[in-house]
């Protein structure tokens, strides 16, 4: 049995794709997963599963949300080792001074450094990107409201199906829940 974090993209943001966390917990339990907990209202669900296939679990969540809630929502799944690695090797630790403005963009595929270099050309002055394995670390000193570094840009330029960001506070809380 492995503990996972399911990351849903774009729910309960700006009144779009509203999913009650109680409904999300019930949906994940209905898929046969156990010890289900949600974190915040922004689409973070932690659960235990006997599956070792993160991509299959993400696809399972996407299909269940579509079938039961009628919404198309991109999902990613990461295990405790992934989140421990991400938090232990923070490449922006020396730069990022506010955890609510430091982000991890989780991706459905590996980061291609050449493609990430192209994305960096869109960044505003002071914004910093650093490649991880299946994530990009981002420092947005002015916050995320006015950045051009959006999930759609990452999906298009990096050639991945799903990109979803979490601030450093949320990433560390998820890591703690999976530890």
UniProtKB/TrEMBL annotation:
Gene3D superfamilies from the xrefs? SP0830-like domains
Q: What is this protein called?
A: DUF1697 domain-containing protein
Q: Which domain of life is it from?
A: Bacteria
Entries under InterPro entries matching the protein: DUF1697
């Amino acid at each position: 049995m492995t503990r996972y974090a399911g990351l849903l993209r774009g729910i309960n943001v700006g009144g779009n794709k509203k999913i009650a966390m109680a409904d999300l917990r019930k949906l994940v339990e209905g898929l046969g997963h156990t010890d289900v907990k949600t974190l915040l209202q922004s689409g973070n669900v932690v659960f235990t599963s006997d599956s070792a296939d993160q991509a299959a679990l993400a696809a399972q969540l996407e299909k269940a949300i579509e079938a039961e809630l009628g919404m198309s929502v991109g999902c990613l799944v990461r295990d405790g080792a992934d989140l421990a690695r991400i938090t232990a090797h923070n490449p922006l630790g020396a730069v990022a001074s506010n955890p609510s403005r430091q982000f991890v963009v989780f991706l459905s595929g590996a980061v291609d450094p050449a493609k990430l270099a192209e994305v960096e050309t869109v960044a505003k002055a002071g914004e910093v990107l650093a490649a991880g394995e299946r994530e990009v670390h981002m420092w947005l000193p002015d916050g995320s409201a006015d950045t051009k570094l959006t999930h759609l840009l990452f999906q298009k330029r990096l050639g991945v199906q799903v990109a979803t960001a979490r601030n450093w506070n949320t990433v560390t809380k998820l890591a703690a829940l999976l530890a």
